[in-house]
Amino acid sequence: MVTHPAWWSDDVALATPPQPRLHPAGLDHLPTEWSVVDALTLPSGARIDHVVVGPNGVFTIGIDPEPIPADVGEDGIYRNGVRVTMPVKHALAAAHEARRALGLATLAYPILVTALRSPRHHLDRLGVVPGDRIAEHIWSHPGFPLRRSQRAEILWTLRRFGT
Fold this sequence. Notes:
Layout: E1 2-3, E2 13-14, E3 20-22, E4 29-31, E5 35-41, E6 47-54, E7 57-63, E8 71-73, E9 76-79, E10 82-84, H1 86-102, E11 108-113, E12 121-123, E13 126-129, H2 134-140, H3 148-159
Parallel strand pairs: 7-11, 11-13
Antiparallel strand pairs: 1-2, 3-4, 5-6, 6-7, 8-9, 9-10, 12-13
């Protein structure tokens, strides 16, 4: 597992498969077919922490700043017995707005990174994972396969919204 201090906040880790490439800053190891775009502000005003684009799709990643571990129930995330809604809503809205901004026949799969008591969970279509399970969740997701040219077009569009 490799920690990516430049691309992921709060010591979020991303494991890499064989044959990683070195990020130009010398800090990150990413597989050649995966790209990460950070800190996007879409035309709607929505902010997205990270977007990962790879062979099995586009994933929007929202980081929950709360360090208290959460429990995941059938209908939501709970901390100290109280349902937490804002991080879930932000993560789902980010994926919806990313799809709208891309203007393509592209699905954006939402992921919420938060402190969890379990290794990972799904709330309907929202993947909820701790920081050290992002890559595992993305790579095991069936996704919607994208050709290299489609990934390049998506990245070009996303980088226009970067800050």
